Amino acid sequence: MTVEIPLEADWDRAPNLLEGAQEMTLTAQECDLAYWLSAVAQGTLRGRAERGHAATTPAYMRRPGPLRDALVLELGNRSLAESRAVRVLSNYVIGAPGVVEQEFFVTQVVDEARHAMIFRQHLTDLGVPEEGLLDFIAEQGADYTERVLNPIAEFATTVVRDEGDFIGAVAVFTIVIEGVLAPAAELSERKWTLLDPAAAEVARGASIDEIRHLTVGSSIVREHLARNPGYRPRLIELIRRGRALWDELPSEEFVLEREELFQEGMGAHADLLRDYEVFPGCKLLETTPKQRYDLAERWTDDMAEVRLPYMGIPEAVELIRTTR
C-alpha cells in the first residue's frame, strides 16, 4: 500500500519555513499521531531518519578553520536548544486538556528529540569525535544554556506547570520561542546550501517540522480564543512577559559570534558562492554578520504580521515586532 504524503510533509514539495508558517493552516485534529506515523515517519524522514540528510559533507568542512567552527557552534547550540525543548514540551503532554492536544504534543516532543539527534550526528560528520560528544556540546554551549536557554525554558515551564495555563503555554512556545527562533533556522538552511549540502538538508528537515509546530500551535490558540474571548487579556499579558524576557536575553551576542566566524570562513569559497543569492537580489557574499542577523529579525516580523492576526490578536503584532 502506497502512503500519500501531504504537501507540507513532502521533502520535495513542502514550502520553506517562512512561506509555510505564513500561508498554511494545520490543526491538531489533522496532525494527530496517525498523521505523524504516516506523513512524517514515512514521508519527511524517508531515507533521512538516522542522520537527517542524504547528502555528502564536503571534505573542507572537516578541516579546522572558521567555517567549520561556525557550523560546529551552530549545531551544538541548536542541539542544546532542541533537547531543552523536549524537557519543556513534556510538560505540555502532561498538561494537555484532551487526547487531541496530547497526541500532537507527543509528536512534537519526538520531533524536537530527533532534531537534537541529527544536529549531534552532523557534528560527527564534521569530525567531532563521537566519544564524549554530549560533554563537548554541553561545555561549548554552557554560557548559551545559562544565559539564553534556561530563562526561556523556565518561563514556558512556569506557565504550563506552575500556572496551569496550557493555552498560554502554547502561545508562549508558538509566538515567543519558536516564532522568534524560526527565521534563524530558515537563514541557516539558505547559508549552508552550497557550502555544506548535508547541513542544509538537516536544517530543511527541521524546518518542515517547524511549519507544523507553528501552524498547529497557532490553530490551538485561535480556536481557544474564539470559544473564550474573555481570555484575551491574559494572552496579551503573557505575550508582553515573553517579549520582555526575550529583550533581556543576549541572543544577538551568540548569533553574531558564529556569523563572524561564518563571514571569515565563506571568503575562502568565493568562487563557489559568487552568484549565490541568500534571498532574491542579495548575494550571500555581499552580506555582513549584522545584516544577516537583521534579516532574520525582519522575517520574525513578517511571520508575526500574518500569524498573530490569524490567531485573533492583531494588537500583539507591535508587542512582538523586533524592528521598532
CATH fold node name: Ribonucleotide Reductase, subunit A
The low-pLDDT segments are none
Q: Based on Cα principal axes, name the global outline.
A: globular
How many individual domains? 1
- In N-to-C order, the SSE pattern is HHHHHHHHHHHEEHH
Query: For this entry, what is the oligomeric state of its chains?
Result: single chain
Note the total helix count. 13
The fraction of residues assigned to DSSP E strands is under 5%
Distance separating the two termini:
53 Å
CATH architecture: Orthogonal Bundle
The largest sheet, given as strand count, sense and whether it forms a barrel, is: 2 strands, antiparallel
Strand order of the largest sheet: 1-2
Rg, nearest Å:
19 Å
Topology summary:
Layout: H1 17-23, H2 33-44, H3 66-95, H4 99-125, H5 133-140, H6 142-162, H7 166-192, H8 197-227, H9 232-248, H10 251-266, H11 270-273, E1 277-279, E2 282-283, H12 289-311, H13 317-320
Helix pairs in contact: 1-8, 1-12, 3-4, 3-6, 3-10, 4-8, 6-7, 7-8, 7-9, 7-12, 8-12, 10-12
Describe this protein with a few key phrases.
324 residues, mainly alpha, Ribonucleotide Reductase, subunit A, two-stranded antiparallel ribbon
